[in-house]
Design goal:
7 strands; 5-stranded mixed β-sheet; Chitinase A, domain 3; two-stranded parallel ribbon; alpha/beta
């Protein structure tokens, strides 16, 4: 996947497109802030990837991840992707970690069964990837 592609759900893309339409069809001059938002929205919409990821066990944006912390055996379930964009989709019922977050950057590109050490504020945590499935 190209570095400038941004994965998002169809619902998130629809909300961005509606916001862009609202701003660009305004029958008035846009404020500087609104003009900046139009530029941002156009960029996001043009780089949007809304296709479902393959169910191949690869950890990447657009996947629902289940990972076990080896220190205490607890299980985390989350979606890997842009928190700002995925918060636009009310159908997502789990946390969202960005690929740039400590957990996201440690596990992005791994496969089911792989482990990663994540540097957390209170020390390191070892995660084992239990499941990586496409967001429906």
């Amino acid at each position: 996947m190209a570095a400038d592609v941004v994965w998002m759900t169809p619902a998130a893309l629809e909300k961005l497109q509606l916001e862009l339409t609202d701003l660009t069809s305004a029958d008035r001059e846009l404020t500087e802030r609104e003009q900046a938002r139009v530029i941002e929205l156009k960029s996001l919409v043009s780089r949007a990837e809304v296709t479902s990821k393959p169910d191949d066990g690869l950890v990447e944006p657009g996947m629902r991840i289940e990972a076990r912390t080896e220190e205490d055996g607890s299980v985390l379930e989350f979606v890997l992707g842009s928190r700002e964009l995925l918060d636009l989709d009310a159908s997502l019922d789990v946390s969202v970690f960005s690929p740039e977050s400590p957990i996201g950057s440690a596990i992005n590109g791994l496969h089911v069964g792989d482990t990663a050490v994540v540097q957390a504020p209170k020390g390191s945590v070892t995660l084992t990837i239990l499941r990586a499935t496409p967001v429906a």
